Structure formats: C-alpha cells, structure tokens
Amino acid sequence: MRDLIYRRLKVMVMMMVIVSWRCVLGLENINPIFFDEGLSHLFGESNLIRSPDDRSVRLLLDKYTGSGFISSSMYQHGFFSSLIKLPGANTAGLVVAFYTSNGDVFVKNHDELDIEFLGNVEGKPWRFQTNMYGNGSTSRGREERYRLWFDPSKEFHRYSILWNPTKIIFWVDDVPIREIKRKEEMNGDYPQKPMSLYATIWDASSWATSGGKFSVDYTFSPFVSEFKDIALDGCNVSESLTTLTRANYNNINCSASDQLLMTSDYSTISPKQAAAMRRFRERYMYYSYCYDTVRYAVPPPECVILTAEKDRFRDTGRLKFGGSHTKVHRARKRRRPNRSTPVVSAEL
Is 116 a catalytic residue? Predict the structure, then answer.
C-alpha cells in the first residue's frame, strides 16, 4: 500500500513539473507522439535505439555508420519540435540535424528547413545553424550561424520549427531565434511543397568544424544524440497523394490546419519573446546571409536590415572583432565593469 501511494505521488509530481514547464514556455499545446505514431527508421541499422516506452529515441554514430529517422507522413505546413540532447566530449566533424525536407521526392526542386548542430573539438562549444531552401534554391542558401547560452550536451532542450503559409519561426526552448516572413518577391524561394521531418547524426568531417580542419575522432565513439517528446502538428497530406506533382498537392485543402498553425501560441511572438530574440541575435549570432554582401549585393527580399545589427558584421556576413561574441563581451565588460550579461530568456 505504501509503495502504491509513493508511486502515485511520484506520478503526480512529474505531471506537475511537466505542466509547469509547458506553461512557462507557453507551449502547452504541444502534444508529443509515440515513435510508432508518426516516425520511421531511416538508416543506421542498430544505431537507432528506441526507448521501452516508445517516447524517445537515441541516434548513434560510430565508425561504421550514422543513423536517422523520418516522419511516416509528409506535411503541407506544420510545427515540428523535439527535446534534444547532444553528444559531449570531442564532437569535431559530426553533425546532428533536425530538419524538414522533400528532397527524396522533388529531387531537382526540393524545399528544406534546417536546424544543424555542428560539433567541435573538446573544450569548445557546440555551434549550430538554421537554413531555408525553397524550390531547389541551394545556390541561394539562407544560413545563419549561432552559439548557445547553455551546454546542449548536459541536458535536454526543446528545438522547434514552425512553417505556415506566411512565416517560418525557429525556436530554442521559449526563445524565437529567427523569423522569416514570406514576401511576394521570394516567389518559389519560400518552401511551398509538402515536407517530411528528419533527424540524423552523421560524419561531416569535410566541413562541419573549422571548414573541415578537424575530422571525427572515432576513439570517442559511439556518439549519442537523444530525442524525446517529439511533436508533429500540421496538415498530413500523405494519404491524399499518390504521386506528388504541383497539380495535386496544390489541390489539397489544408485551410483548417493552416488556420490553427497561424493562430497557435508558437506562431505568435510576444513582446517579451521579441526582446529575447533581439538579445539572442545580438549576443550569439556570428554569421548572417542578410549582411553577406559578397554573396548578395542586394539582400534577399525577406531580409530585415537593422542598422545596429549590420554595424557588427563585415561584408562577408561574419562578425567584426575576430568573429567572437566572447571577445566582444569581454571587451564590453572591461569598458563597463558594473554591467552584467543577462541570460537570454523570454522571461526577461
């Protein structure tokens, strides 16, 4: 009897923590799925390990193979989210990716939305990038690169991608880190075709760390990335499609789902969250295509050029002052010894 009461109390406490966490983040409408409800093994044989409760999955990279999973369906717009924990120690050369794509179906004109985590040498922090491709626009990539305000290998954090007919928002926990508002001038560069969700870990030694200077050191393998509380919310179009062509995917009615995506809490950035996004980009973004005038003499139409933000970047889109926010912060700290660096949070 005592054990039964203890177990019930434990469950109640866990539920209270989960509800409190979701309310703090404003993500109470996220509904995680079981793996079998909407995901499938993509590659990696035994390097994909599902938990006994089917709520989480581990992706491993060893000297033989990486691994990955894919959503069982394609979605015409959606909200894609997961709690993710990255490998620790020496992660140079590897990439953990959480992204949407239709490259397997639309080989020459695919769409893609990326969150890619770039490993680093031991003692150096993980970095990550977001990207957007539309209609095969791989020559017109929209990369931004950042640091994080925490160690992503120590605990789980939620990473999310919203994609609806009018905007794209990338989230880290409760902080929107990037918003792309659709402009007519973008034409097909704005993703418009149904996409699947992917998660992968793989060897990207040729480019991931310092432009390929450091390769994966397999003496540290297996490298383990963990995904849990995965959420898929959008217009599931797979059952409505036999062959994906422009004619038939445009005829699918997703108006009800799109309306929900456009009015949900994760599609609206509050004033607090807008301030948090501005602080994040000031402190942790170290490359932006919008300020890369070497690649784009005229910024792409969705770019919002902020003078204060632009002044921090060279014409290559990289930071001035040696490209390190840490150096910039140290210099500021020396000049203003009484001013502390606040934590990036929507609560500030």
Answer: yes
